[in-house]
Amino acid sequence: MKHAKVIIIGGGIVGSATAYYLAKRGVTDVMVLEGSASIGHGASSRNGGGVRQSGRDVRELPIAMCAVQKFWPTLSEELGVDTEYTQDGNLRLGKNEAHMKKLNTLASNCQAMGLDVYMVDKEKAHEINPYLSDDVIGASFCPTDGHANPLTTTLGYYMKALELGVKFYTKAKVKALKKVKGKVSVVIMDDGEELAADTIVLAAGYHSRVIMNTIGLDVPMQDVIDGCIVTEMQPKMFGQMLGTAGADFYGHQTHHGSFVFGAVAGPEAYMDVPPETTNFAHSATLGATCRAVEGYIPDLAKAKIVRSWTGWCDCTSDGVCVLGKVEEAPGLILACGFNGHGFGTAPAVGYMMAQLAMDEKPLLDLSALRYERFYNF
């Protein structure tokens, strides 16, 4: 039976970042098992690239703040790739009083945790971004929020970890976990092969739920489809990440000039098809997203859409991720249920999952995000 000190299930940004931070600290006896044919094939390469702290649940906000303060500013240099990290702030837009009330509550919650986020009126919002529609009556603004490129960042972690000696395996589908003498120490592959490890990190998105079920664990979560569109290249307009109180869309302008916008999918959510086959947004979703964008940024009304795709978000019942060791499953570390918010926090999460795999105290207190919180559900 093959053995590794650490086996990481999932080759997305969290799994690849965990592998990198382990290898950086000298732990290179690591295997990363990715079920698809390519690294970062799931949500890690299909998200809108937001690196935001504002609007987050207070339980995960410290992780987002840590990622922005300690990791993102130097990540391009560290990984040797252009992550396209841009820190021009996040405007979360409102069009009516109900929107503004919601934004004010979110901002107040984050302010209480020490985040620099504040409300701006219509005049100030349009001063920050003169391309906004007159229908926008105000916004919350976090100047330290931003965005980055999910593809280059994920592959940067992968390539650096690979360079340091980590072994990555694609088309490596995991069937089950197994306990030996009370400890989770064996991974059973689809073909029946068994792999052993001192520690197993489960970071496989929604697939994590099926895998953990094999040892009697369960996290209440569902797979939610998110759709993205990319416009043709536009003149440089603005650098902020945008969001809306009405959850109409989110997005930003890339360094290339194109815009990437995302929105929760429509008809796709009701299609009876497995996640692996739904890679293209439905025309109804595309149209709704485009109309929403036009309603906030009129100058993009005639921009052509050159590409679209969908991605799957592993959404927990309480809206925040599951991180850490599991009391009833020694040897297992969970890193899943990111609710579509996982890209921006991934550097800090990967670093702390590596710490836990080395039996060290993590940078932050993760107790509010542990698996055991679901015992009372």
Automatic annotation (TrEMBL):
Q: Does the keyword Oxidoreductase apply?
A: yes
Top-level taxon of origin: Bacteria
Looking at the keywords, is Cell division present? no
Question: One GO cellular component from the entry?
Answer: cytoplasm
**Which residues does the UniProt record annotate as the domain FAD dependent oxidoreductase?**
5-356
Q: Which residues cross the membrane?
A: none
- What UniProt keywords are attached to this protein's entry? Oxidoreductase
UniProt xrefs under InterPro entries: FAD-dep_OxRdtase, FAD/NAD-bd_sf
Gene3D superfamilies named among the record's database cross-references: D-Amino Acid Oxidase, subunit A, domain 2, FAD/NAD(P)-binding domain
Q: Name one GO molecular function term.
A: oxidoreductase activity
PANTHER family, alphabetized? FAD-DEPENDENT OXIDOREDUCTASE DOMAIN-CONTAINING PROTEIN 1 (PTHR13847:SF287), SARCOSINE DEHYDROGENASE-RELATED (PTHR13847)
**Name recorded for this polypeptide:** FAD-binding oxidoreductase
